[in-house]
Amino acid sequence: MMRYLIPLFAFMVLAAFLLVGLTLNPRQVPSPLIDKPAPVFQLNQLHEPDKVMASNDNLGKVWLLNVWASWCVACRDEHPLLVQLAKSGIVPIYGLNYKDERTTAMQWLKRYGDPYTISIVDSDGKVGIDYGVYGVPETYVIDKKGIIRHKQIGPVTADSLQKTIIPLIIELQKQA
Amino acid sequence: MLKVHDLYNFVISRRFSHLKKLIVFFILFLTIPSVGWSKEAVPVAEDPEVEKRMLALTMDLRCLVCQNESIADSRADFSNDIRREIREQIKANKTDQEIIQFLVARYGDFVLYNPPMKPTTILLWFGPVALFIIGLGSLITYIRRRREQIEETPLSEAQLRKVESLLNEDKGKNV
Question: What is the rounded CA–CA span in Å between residue B133 and residue B135?
Answer without folding.
Answer: 5
